[in-house]
Amino acid sequence: MFWRFHHITVFLSKDIILDQDTLTGLVKYNDDPHDFKNYGNVHNLFFDLENQIWHFVHKLIAFQDYHSYTVTFTGYSIGGAVATLAAMQTVADNLRESSHITLITFGEPRVGNLIFANSVDRELPNIFRISHRYDPIVHLPPCLSNGKYTCTTNEPQAPHHHGTEIFYDNDMRYNADFLRCTYNDEDANCSNSLQDRPDFIDHEYYFQVSIFE
Q: Are 125 and 158 in contact (CB under 8 A)?
């Protein structure tokens, strides 16, 4: 007996080196945000990158023979941000029902403002935003603080994470414990609680695999 899995996985890797210019660009979210499909504003860097790859993604998932396939979008770091936008464009263009889309990201920065984050939560029910201990990239662009370990929801244009954060406060070995952060999208009990101790090693390694290897 043969089983056929009608599924497409779209992996968007991190092809941009996180040099000083890129990090500076991540910090300066409010310089030139873009509206994304009326879902809210997003960072101009992610907006431009998604525009560059969308033709290839669209060609794959819109192919007639794959029309009934479910789709998983996944990506690491900036690639995670681009994967989020690609998943949202798939919904906006009516290429798949939301229930047929899964989004899994690793070390993803804040993609857009609070309005966009709420749109992602509303449109995509199957989201897993995985974060690792002291990874500093998940805290960029900086949000507007509401106390020490969380972000305000009083400013809809400020950078804000979408859900659902899956937080590993360990070395991410096989079967390591994790916390599913469901209090809100900027849960003070998850990665935000460790933002005072940034360590790029925790951005480089996810599940004990270096993205530079």
A: no
**Tokens encoding 25:** 């660009």
Cα(35)–Cα(199) distance, rounded to whole angstroms?
A: 32
Alpha helices in 77-188 (DSSP H): 78-92, 114-123
Active site residues: 77, 135, 203
Q: How far is CA 125 from CA 48, 71, 87, in A?
A: 25, 13, 12
DSSP 3-state assignment of 76? strand
* 7-206 CATH: 3.40.50.1820
pLDDT digits (tens, 9 = 90+) for 114-149: 999 999 999 999 999 999 999 999 999 988 877 667
For the segment 25-75, what is each residue's pLDDT rounded down to a tens digit?
666 666 678 999 999 999 999 999 999 999 999 999 999 899 899 999 999
Judged by phi (left if over 0) then psi (alpha if -120 to 50, else beta), residue 146 lies in beta
Kindly give, in sequence order, each residue whose CB lies less than 8 Å from that of residue 79, ignoring residues fewer than 6 positions away: 11, 12, 13, 14, 15, 105
